[in-house]
Amino acid sequence: MSGIGTGYDLSTTTYSPDGKVFQVDYACKAVDNGGLALGIKCSDGVVLGVEKLLPFKMLVPGSNRRIAPVDRHAGMAGAGLAPDARQIMSRARSECANYKSFYGDKIPSKILADRMANYLHMFTLYWSVRPFGAAVLLAVRDPATGKYELYLLEPSGECQRYHGMAIGKGRQAAKNEVEKLKLGEMSCLEAVKEAARIIVTTHDEKDKDYECELAWICDDSGGEFKKVPKDIADEAIAAAKRALEDDDAMDAD
Amino acid sequence: MIPTRVSHNPIIGPGVVPFGVDPAYDAQYKLNQAPRSHVASHGQGKPFTVEPGPHQRTQYPYVTGTTVLGCKYKDGVMIACDTLCCYGSTKRYKSVERIKKVNSSTIISFTGELSDFHYIVSLLEELDTTDYCEDDGSELAPWEIHSYLCRVMYNRRNKFDPLWNSLVVAGVKHGRTFLGTVGMIGQHYEDSHLAAGFGNHMARPLFREKHTDDMSEEDARKLMEDCLRACLMRDKTMMNKFQIAKVTAGGLEISEPFQVPMNWGYEKFKDPTKHAVGAW
Amino acid sequence: MDYGVPAALGVAPELMEEVSTGTTIMACVYDGGVVLGADSRTSTGNYVANRASDKITQVMDNVWMCRSGSAADTQNVCAFVKNAVEEHGIMSGSDEPGMADVKLVANVTMQIAYRNKDRLSAGMIIAGWDRRAGPQVFGIPLGGSLEKCDFTLGGSGSAYITGFCDDTWKPGMSREEAEAWIRRAISIAISRDASSGGVIRLVTIHEKGAEKQMFEPAQHPLAYDELPVIRREEVVA
């Protein structure tokens, strides 16, 4: 029991002397180690992208998805521990269904984000549970205003709205790239290409194989959260990979 | 005043919550049973007890729809009903869409209690959203919807709290045409033609006489209109404002409300009691 | 009927019936808002328990409710709905506090009525105006179904005026026309339904807010086979 923080990191119920809850910090580390997830809010919708790392060659392509709808008007992309992210999504689905069964309408974005933040926060308060090792990006079309919104939910229970955000491995480089985009003017069709490019370029070659998952909720998708249609996604990913190879070739020259 | 939990839950089961799954709900449920304790106190000097006696779960319908007809034909299946909902014998709501789309290959219609049908539709919407969240483009087939509804109806009748409806489910998927019904106690069957409610007596004899599975859409529609007319003439809770919905491999279509022509001009209607004055 | 109260208490049986089942309530849309109307009689058996009751209750600034059936049930449903909707407004960070979506209020009310249908006898009308969908009227009759209507009626008195209303309803009425139409309908119901009576209350809701009005019997159109109403102070004076 020596060294900084030692003894204070065994439970979320104990603060360290300098005011940290180490278990939450460690949970964030788990998020940082997972594949990249990014979200871009455009003029006509939101695009979510994930770099899904493939530890084995024999995995069925397209399985173990990291992005999924939680209702027709909302979807999530998870980074960090996949099972934890899945649990968060499952809870989000219940919240959406529960709201609709009582109020008769789709859940508003703010209420969904708030309820999910509360849910995550509950796991930072008790000795008997472990904070989620996953953070999720939440893309919603608010049913009342028709506006598209992007939220980030973190293991601490923190919840913020963003124009663009990246989490997971290589997030810093990805965030820099997202910041360079003209988010207010860009359409989702363009953003899909950018998202694919950012995922492909920030991918660490030391890592094994990966799949680039893309989903959106925008006017083109009828205001519903869906996978980006295969032809558009494939083209964006192929273009991104071509550009990367060209760059590599230039570097080699 | 605490709401009974009735929402669909994929883990717990369709439409109802059994004991032992959710302790919080069980506790709630017992609270909701409060009137039972009044049985014991009946007549023993507990004032302010309105209606003591056993708690009644079996209800009765308030706002009701009547007959639904359905038949298969060469390219698919069609169902038809009027757009009326009655409050007792008052014709209360005259523009109710009694046929609902469930998903891209299934439609459903009902007789009986309107609010219970709304609830059933909300269950199906929830189920459809669950499907949607898989994001793999697959949907439940009409016979799967039917099967699900059979479980819901039977489950609720086992709680002595039935959903007061007969439902007709129709659809086409994977080249199979489906037409099935389920009643308020869970009784269910499939057939080439069906009727729920009063139409069982008025329309099915006509179907039995004239219906074939390979009839053209035109013939089927004409037969359907004949059946609707038969019901209209002899069911007091029916009105001349109908919708027909059809499902084919190509998709699903619910018609605008329309009328069927009637004939009241028979010579014998003019003075029916001429030769028997005072008869009806 | 046996109400489980010892006869020794000596309460007249008719006073032990449930309060208020007879009523006339209605609501309709007009081109810029909605009008809700109701009579003011609350009875306990044949006894008029309250001759000036208010059956139009505020749920939010822009959504009001007409209540029929058991007074106790509807008051409590109304309180529950109000609570739920206000809480929802806070949770969703509504930028117009006090305002709510009419459809949302109607839906919550329907859920309460439907999920507790074997315990409640409550027929309600929800009407209001909101920025999203303008004027709206919803009927929630006994079983807990929900129907959006141009106009709807409720209570025992409605049986006497449905024909009149079907016949004289016009879409796109002005506010004055709508108010006059509802006053006429309710006065007809009062004239034949023993369970309806007293004054006519109106609530008109539009973009700028809600206004209450009251019309005493002397201001009702004169019904067939009745005498013109004389005000008491006129006799005294």
From TrEMBL, chain A:
Subcellular location: Cytoplasm; Nucleus
Subunit structure: The 20S proteasome core is composed of 28 subunits that are arranged in four stacked rings, resulting in a barrel-shaped structure. The two end rings are each formed by seven alpha subunits, and the two central rings are each formed by seven beta subunits.
Domain Proteasome alpha-type subunits span(s) in chain numbering: 8-30
CDD domains linked to this entry: proteasome_alpha_type_3
Superkingdom, taxonomy of origin: Eukaryota
Protein's GO biological process: ubiquitin-dependent protein catabolic process
Keyword Cytoplasm: yes
Organism, as annotated: Micromonas commoda (strain RCC299 / NOUM17 / CCMP2709) (Picoplanktonic green alga)
GO cellular component: a single term: nucleus
Name of the protein in question: Proteasome subunit alpha type
Automatic annotation (TrEMBL), chain B:
Keywords: Cytoplasm, Nucleus, Proteasome
Signal peptide: none
SUPFAM superfamilies assigned: N-terminal nucleophile aminohydrolases (Ntn hydrolases)
Compartments it resides in: Cytoplasm; Nucleus
Keyword Cytoplasm attached: yes
Cellular component, GO, one term: proteasome core complex, beta-subunit complex
InterPro entries: Ntn_hydrolases_N (IPR029055), Proteasome_beta4 (IPR016295), Proteasome_sua/b (IPR001353), Proteasome_suB-type (IPR023333)
GO process terms (BP): proteolysis involved in protein catabolic process
Protein family according to the UniProt entry: Belongs to the peptidase T1B family.
Role summary: Non-catalytic component of the proteasome.
Protein's name in the database: Proteasome subunit beta
Source organism per UniProt: Micromonas commoda (strain RCC299 / NOUM17 / CCMP2709)
TrEMBL record, chain C:
Molecular function GO labels: threonine-type endopeptidase activity
Source domain of life: Eukaryota
GO annotation terms (biological process): proteolysis involved in protein catabolic process
Localization terms from the record: Nucleus
InterPro entries named among the record's database cross-references: Ntn_hydrolases_N (IPR029055), Pept_T1A_subB (IPR000243), Proteasome_sua/b (IPR001353), Proteasome_suB-type (IPR023333)
Active site residues per record: T23
Keyword Cytoplasm: yes
EC assignment: 3.4.25.1
Record keywords, A-Z: Cytoplasm, Hydrolase, Protease, Proteasome, Threonine protease
Pfam families, A to Z: Proteasome (PF00227)
Gene3D superfamilies: Glutamine Phosphoribosylpyrophosphate, subunit 1, domain 1
The reaction(s) this protein catalyses: Cleavage of peptide bonds with very broad specificity
GO cellular component: a single term: cytoplasm
Enzyme class: hydrolase
Keyword hit for Cytoplasm: yes
Protein known as: proteasome endopeptidase complex
Source organism of the structure: Micromonas commoda (strain RCC299 / NOUM17 / CCMP2709)
